[in-house]
Amino acid sequence: MGLLAKAQTDDLGHRFSALTNLPDFKWLQPPEIGAVMVRGRMGGVGAPFNLGEMSVTRCALMIASGEVGHAYVQGRSKVHAEQAAMIDALMQTERADEVRAAVLVPIAASRAASHQTRAEKAAATKVDFFTLVRGED
Amino acid sequence: MYVAVKGGERAIDNAHEWLAEERRGDTDIAELSIAQIREQLALAVNRVMAEGSLYDPDLAALAIKQSRGDLIEAIFLIRAYRTTLPRIGHSKPIETSDMACDRRISATFKDLPGGQILGPTFDYTHRLLDFKLAAEGKAPVAQTRETDVDRMPRVTDFLNQDGLIQTETPTDTSPPDLTRQPMQFPAGRPLRLQNLTRGDEGFVLSIAYSTQRGYARNHPFVGELRIGRVVVEMDIPALGFAVDIGEITVTECETVNQFTGSKTEPAQFTRGYGLVFGQTERKAISMALVDRALRWEELGEDNMGAPAQDEEFVLAHSDNIQATGFLEHIKLPHYVDFQSELELVRKLRRETADATKEAAE
Questions:
Q1: d(Cα B131, Cα B156) in Å, to the nearest integer?
Q2: Which end of chain B is more exposed for a tag (fewer CB within 10 A), N or C?
Q3: CA angle (B308 as vertex; B93, A44 as ends), nearest 5
Q4: Dihedral sign, CA of A96, A98, A103, A104?
């Protein structure tokens, strides 16, 4: 669920479209856009305080075979939330391996790659100090 | 005093239509897209998210477009929008210790574990206009260097190993929320931090600057400044466990401040803390300085009567939407108010004139 929440909406949509024969479903909770208050900690480690809100879309659905899928995803895309909930439901069925290979693994890989690229750009800006020795002795 | 005045409807409609036309500007010039604003005016987007107090880059970009680049107007639009959103809940406190850092510097230790990582900074640029940007060119490409993604240790943790800095004690108390209850004084540190993180950047900067210039000076060092991505995790009651619901970019600043000790505390360093949505470094540093200045009472320092030590003064004036609302309302019709003032001035003048005449007779 966490991976689906953090996935780029376009990336998820693209992977999701590769899945065929999706089961019928009914909404237990249709997609709803809301806000979650994000908290921080004083000094990064101390007592909590309210930092500000972020937009979140949530939904819950039940597929024909009875499995329930939930989604809480960042942003305001109802399609993203629906797709995330559908995948959550499918992961509880015998199609789990297929869904993992078609959606979760590639999304995790593209996420890891983009993290690695940013980390490498950051590393290139790391300062290598050297000291110039002045004078004799 | 307010009275209903009618008759401006057509003028208002036409004014708004003209506003829309002016917003678009010269139609021979390509229109800005939301994605262009989000990607290329990212720091404006960050400021609108931080002070609008809603993390949503696309919405902030839309607000900037709609407000013609007036950031306070854009923040106003975001604040108005966020009131329409149902509150789903609150996240667990974000773990900035696990941040994927784009930038991480310390002004107190040169050789700190993890190193000084400059990131995409304006520092060390010469502040000369780059006319190459006026012409379209190839997209620049950043250098890369092989690295393992590692957790960055916190500078204040090193200091704390020797007990040289005041300890922050983790708790799980639910903090007060100024979007739910009106602010009351004394506010306490959690509410102060919430107020400051959404406060006007210019205001918080000026108050911070006043402490540096000597109004309640507290000798800050930037112990650590980091910018990067953190995961947001939330307990989902329906599931009975916590899941990641997204990822946000934040700027965190920890200042290390001199403290000579008190009757109960040995001499040690104290902390100021800044945490702000987005890449918002000036604001985060300012917030840390103001946070530290407002802690004078808790740390047993003297009240120098400085603005930065006055909790009510700082917190009641930091919000640019409240300030704008009150300031700008005076341009709206006050015809009746003014009539009574006019009457009063005329009456006073008449009385004075009469008195002078009587004295002369």
A1: 42
A2: C
A3: 20
A4: positive
Hey, of A49, A68, A110, A131, which one would you mutate to test binding to chain B, going by the most B CBs within 10 A of its CB? A49
Q: Strands A25-41, B270-277: parallel, antiparallel or unpaired by DSSP?
A: unpaired
Q: How far apart are CA B299 and CA B100, in angstroms?
A: 33
Q: Does A47 touch chain B (CB under 8 A)?
A: yes
For B199: left if phi > 0, alpha if psi spans -120 to 50, otherwise beta; the answer is: beta
Indicate whether B253 pLDDT > 70: yes
Site from A51, A77, A110 to mutate, B interface, most B CB atoms within 10 angstroms: A51
Q: Exposure pattern of B142-178 as b/e (b: 16+ CB <10 Å)?
A: eeeeeeeeeebebbbebbbeeeebbebeeeeeebbbb
**3-state secondary structure at position B37:** helix
Compute the average pLDDT of residues B187-209. 97
Q: Can you tell me the distance from the alpha carbon of B7 to that of B302, in angstroms, rounded to the nearest whole number?
A: 58
Structure tokens at B220: 């800050």
Residues in contact with A118: Cβ distance below 8 Å, sequence separation at least 6, in sequence order: B100, B102
Q: Which two tokens stand for residue B195?
A: 């107020």
Q: Cβ of B94 and A51 within 8 Å? A: yes
Residue B263 has pLDDT above 80, yes or no: no
Contacts of A70 in chain B (CB under 8 A): 236, 238-239
Q: Are the Cβ atoms of A121 and B96 closer than 8 angstroms? A: no
Give the nearest partner residue to A37 out of B177, B197, B243, using CB atoms: B177
In chain B, residues with a C-beta closer than 8 Å to the C-beta of A53 are 53-55, 82, 85, 87, 179
Domains of chain B, by residue range, sit at: 9-82, 96-120+150-168+180-324
Residue B271: list chain A partners with CB under 8 A: 43
In this structure, what token pair is assigned to residue B345?
Answer: 């001035």
pLDDT of B361: 76
Chain A residues within an 8 Å CB radius of B117: 122-123, 125-127
Does A38 contact B197 at a Cβ distance shorter than 8 Å? no
Contact A106, B131 (CB under 8 A): no
Closest CB from A39, A43, A56 relative to B92: A39
DSSP letters of A85-103?
HHHHHHTTSTTHHHHIIII
Between A21-25, B2-6, B209-213, B347-351, the lowest mean confidence (pLDDT) is in: B2-6
- In a 13 Å sphere around the CA of B301, the CA atoms on its Cβ side amount to 21
Q: Are B192 and B311 in contact (CB under 8 A)?
A: yes
| Nearest C-alpha neighbor of B247 from the set B262, B228, B229, B271 | B229
Residue type, position B267, single letter: A
Instruction: Tell me whether A135 touches chain B (CB under 8 Å).
Output: no
Best CA proximity match to B114, nearest among B130, B99, B136? B99
Name the one residue in this structure whose structure tokens are 């210019």. B202
